[in-house]
Amino acid sequence: NHSNCQCSHSNHSHDTDGRCQRCKKFCNKFECCLELNQNATPTPWTRQQAEQIRITSANAAPLIQEPFEDTAPDLWVWDTWPLREKDGSIAVLPGGWRVIFSLTAPRSVLPGKRHDIATIRYFYSRDGQDWIPGGVVFPAGDALGSRQWAGSAFVENGEIYFFYTATGRRNEAQVTYEQRMAFTKGEVFSNLNGVLFGNWEEHSIILVPDGIYYQTQEQSSGGIIYSFRDPWFWIDPESGCEYIIFEGNTATPQQPINRECNPENIGDGDFRSGNDVPNGSAQFNGNVGVALLRSSDYREWELLPPILEADCVNQQLERPHIVYVGGRYHLFIVSHKFTFAPGLEGPDGLYGFVANDFRGTYVPLGEGGLVVANPPEEPFQAYSWIVLPDLSTLSFINYYNLEGIGLNELPSLPDQFVFNHFGGTLAPTLQLSINGTQTQIVNELAQGLVMESSTEGAPFTPVCERTDHCGG
Ligand code: FRU
User: Fold this and answer.
1) Quick one: which H or E segment has residue 63?
2) Alpha helix stretches (DSSP H) within 84-140
3) 452 flagged as catalytic
4) In which band, very low, low, confident or very high, does the pLDDT at 31 lie, cut at 50, 70 and 90?
5) Which of 283, 352, 424, 462 would be 371's cystine partner, CB 3.0–4.6 Å?
6) Interval 69-108: pLDDT, tens
7) Catalytic one among 236, 318, 348, 390?
8) 86 exposed, middle or buried (CB, 10 Å; 0-12, 13-18, 19+)?
9) Nearest CA to ligand 1 atom 7
10) Is residue 227 within 8 Å of 247, Cβ to Cβ?
């Protein structure tokens, strides 16, 4: 009955039983979170903004020089993520252990081949620096895909919630590049002696591209290879809504070859009208995707419109993640020089954006978005930066000491040359500082250092967990 409706929302309505519909909706976290995302449109990272990309003394990483340590002597180690608490802070397990997960492959394969046989292994450490190998995370044959690519993991009440990219299909005859996002849950065993994971539940595919917001493999045909990967679990501290953000591509009804650039992806006013966009740019359509949790077992997710799109700008916004500091949303991605659209120039680096709300307008950080660049003299020395809550940044050593040799020249050089110039180990951690949209690398720390760090959180009860929205 209407008079009993406690609904505090101004635009509430009543159903046929006279109950406050909107109030009822807001009692359901999923509905509440969905509502917050209604009418959301992605912020474009425009060509105009990307033209501002510059390597400066504030964003150029120090040169990585030998000797450096190998995180694992017989393994290539690349994309890495720490075990976190649900709120994003770095987990410290019983026994005092911090844990990292890495994509790995035996050092016997050429570095370029490693993506085809990537396996997730873990390492644990008490000082966050001397990493003890823990072995493979999943027993052989458990994980989906013919190999596993980057993901994320959190621990809660002794259980581990694990998200990863299932690439290709198990037992496929030839390597394929289908990408689906997968989930499993297991148990954490941790004491003074070390860390083990076990009792993994069945793995399930939780997200595939819908072809509406996110381009499918089929839709990408005739264009550049698509992405649908790198699931990053994240709770918005202001709403309490639980999301996966990921690397996607914008779906369009047209074939890649027939696309055109939308004005909003080019820039504003004079720039927009006076700018000739080079041919082929419209094929570049990277975005940062979003999915909303809809079941308590973490296996059901709803795809939502992306938060950021780089249509006509860049093909790959890789390993997206958000760091909430100073009450603002800092969205980071990594990208390559070779994935920028024609006419745009950006280094292999960490790029960032800041917004006042999760669904707000994301403004580029640093110079056109550039937060960490490889130094110009060694443009491929590191990759796959991931920013932790204390703004320290983990990455791996990629191709170093190339002295001007381009990546496209590597296949014609002796294998031994390639082996000798690929790091495959954790890079020195970099400490960043952020002031508004200005960012700076303020310190270079030990290789692979992960410090204990907590998230700031929001100073009130999250919107979708407040009972004052419930009535009727
Ligand atoms: C970034 C990346 C990820 C992917 C992985 C595959 O370095 O391309 O997007 O999960 O590498 O090796």
Assistant:
1) none
2) none
3) no
4) confident
5) 352
6) 999 999 999 999 999 999 999 999 999 999 999 999 999 9
7) 318
8) middle
9) 384
10) yes
Q: Given the residues 79, 238, 242, 378, select the one marked as catalytic.
A: 79
Confidence grade of residue 282 (pLDDT, cut at 50, 70, 90): very high
Structure confidence at residue 37 as a pLDDT band (50, 70, 90)? very high
- Compute the half-sphere exposure of residue 387: CA atoms within 13 Å on the CB side of its CA: 30
79 is catalytic: yes
> Is residue 264 over pLDDT 80?
yes
Nearest ligand 1 atom, CA 118: 12
Q: Which atom of ligand 1 lies closest to the CA of 115?
A: 12
Domain ranges of the chain: 12-41, 43-451
Binding pocket residue ranges, ligand 1, CB within 6 Å: 79, 103, 115, 118, 149-150, 165, 229-230, 247, 318-319, 383-384
Q: What is the per-residue pLDDT across 326-364, written as a single tens digit (0 to 9) for each?
A: 999 999 999 999 999 999 999 999 999 999 999 999 999
Question: How far does residue 177's CA lie from ligand 1's centre (Å)?
Answer: 12
59 in Cβ contact with 367 (< 8 Å): yes
Question: Picking from 204-218, 266-280, 306-320, which range would have the lowest pLDDT averaged per residue?
Answer: 266-280
Atom of ligand 1 nearest to the CA of 114: 12
Instruction: Report, at the CATH architecture level, how domain 43-451 is classified.
Output: 5 Propeller (2.115)
Closest C-alpha among 430, 292, 309 to residue 362? 309
Residue nearest ligand 1's atom 1 by CA: 384
